[in-house]
Amino acid sequence: MDYKSLSEFAALRGVSPSRVMYWLKHDRLAGAKKAGSFWIIPAEADPDVKAVGRPAKVEEIPFRDKEEAMLALCAGAPDVRAWRRAGTPRFMAGMAIMLASTPGFDRKRYLALAEKLDPTVLSVDAFEAWLATNPYKPSRFLPKLQQLRKHKKKPS
Question: Percent of the chain beyond pLDDT 70?
Fold first, then answer.
């Protein structure tokens, strides 16, 4: 194991020696030892630095906008590529199974889509677990989807 002095470790990490001293004082450098009045620190020691200050703002898409996008996807033809881009394979396979069990949707086609996306969701237990975590509750989502499909079929 390669050991560094406090100042060498500070230069290696690109921080001040006082910062390294702070990490040592708070036991954040595993394997660091005191040799007389000097510290010896493993070169690969990780201080597990935590970010300071406010976390960066992440622009989150509002839930209703996500729901509208999912409704638009589900109202159209089941295109595997579009469905893969819309979410994780497991989540999208669950959506396909939900639609396969809905009147007015081609059961075989949506089950085939679910199998292409993630075949592990096809079991009853896996689908029940998916339903429990699905943010789009069928009692709200499916009537909105039926309404959207009706509106799309009407000639303008």
Answer: 88
DSSP string, 133-149: H-SS-HHHHHHHHHHHH
Contact in structure between 42 and 3 (CB atoms under 8 Å): yes
How much is the pLDDT for 56? Answer: 65
Tokens 């989150």: give the residue.
60
**What amino acid is encoded at 117 in this protein?**
L
Q: Give the range of the structural domain holding residue 148, as residue numbers without chain letter.
A: 63-153
Phi, psi of 155 (to 5 degrees): -70, 140
Decide if 83 contacts 94 (C-beta within 8 A): no
Q: Does residue 109 share a domain with residue 33?
A: no
Q: Which tokens belong to 110?
A: 């949506």
- Determine the Cα–Cα distance for residues 140 and 71; give it in Å rounded to an integer: 11
Average pLDDT over residues 11-28: 88
Query: Per residue in 59-103, pLDDT tens?
Result: 666 778 888 999 999 998 889 999 999 989 999 999 999 999 999
Find the mean pLDDT for residues 3-18: 90
Pick from 80, 70, 63: nearest CA to 145: 70
Strand 33-35 and strand 38-42: the pairing is: antiparallel
Domain shared by 91 and 140, yes or no: yes
